[in-house]
Here is the input.
Amino acid sequence: MEAFKEHVGLVVPLDRINVDTDQIIPKQFLKRIERTGFGEFLFNDWRYLENGDPNPEFVLNHPRYTGASILISGVNFGCGSSREHAPWALQQYGFKAILAPSFADIFRNNCYKNGILPITLHADVIATLSKAAHKTEGYRLMVDLEEQSVVCPDGTAHTYEIGDFEKYCMLNGLDEIGWTLQYETDITAFENQNRL
Here is the structure.
């Protein structure tokens, strides 16, 4: 997993609430046995029309948001089933951070484990940032994990909370297995000491 310290990225506003994991990555794409290749199917039912053409009304298809790496959305983002494919699809599409007033717990934890930073900000702040992203082409934010802040182009900073364990792992590019392997020498010594 790639370490996350600070990221400056183009913002795309997805003005929807209760975005569930079946919309993030529809069930028909869960048959893959690889952990890669999900980005192209992100928000598939919203991104594409029935004939397969891109939906010109969907925000990710607007040319001004090409290359966006910070997603802003509404309350309860990532609700629904606990599929880990949802953060895989978001990460493989190119998103590094998601800003919302609230997240489904399992989805939030899956984001941490896959290198995406889920940031909870007050609904009024989210509304202001979303409005700015709509109004200003090329709107960018800086996400600073060490300082736990989201910094606007005018220098305004909004702080957010994150658990110490999640912050440590993301700063160091560790999932739970990587974190455990830091103690491989101690684990091996313990196992050798306690062999019958």
Observations:
- The domain at 6-193 is CATH 3.20.19.10 (Aconitase; domain 4).
